[in-house]
Design brief:
Blueprint: E1 6-9, E2 14-19, E3 22-27, H1 30-40, H2 43-49, E4 62-68, E5 71-77, H3 85-97
Antiparallel strand pairs: 1-2, 2-3, 4-5
Length: about 100
């Protein structure tokens, strides 16, 4: 994904990607949707949202903003943070499930 790319996943697993390469659509498998639902409803995700993360310390980190209902997490990925395993699992799942 590139600068200002957006991936939106609906409750039914339908996803839309909007970015430099245009707009793409797809649907998560039932297993992927179930896994994503489990991750975004896990109370650990809300705990991770409250963490104060260090400033970006890498030259080419990827910035993510995850919004689930009223919960928003903003993270810069310079490699997986051990402090945010639920967030990391969501990023990994969506990266594999949405061939962009």
């Amino acid at each position: 994904m590139g600068k200002n790319d957006v991936l939106t996943v609906d409750g039914d697993g339908a996803w839309t990607y909007e970015g430099r390469s245009g707009t793409k659509h797809g649907t998560l498998t039932e297993d992927q949707r179930d896994r994503l639902t489990a991750l975004v409803t896990d109370p650990k995700l809300a705990n991770e949202a409250r963490l104060r993360m260090p400033k970006n310390m890498c030259a080419d980190g990827v910035s993510y903003r995850l919004t689930v209902g009223s919960l928003t997490l903003t993270r810069v990925n310079c490699g997986h943070s051990t402090q945010t395993p639920t967030f990391n699992a969501i990023v990994e799942l969506l990266g594999k499930a949405t061939p962009i």
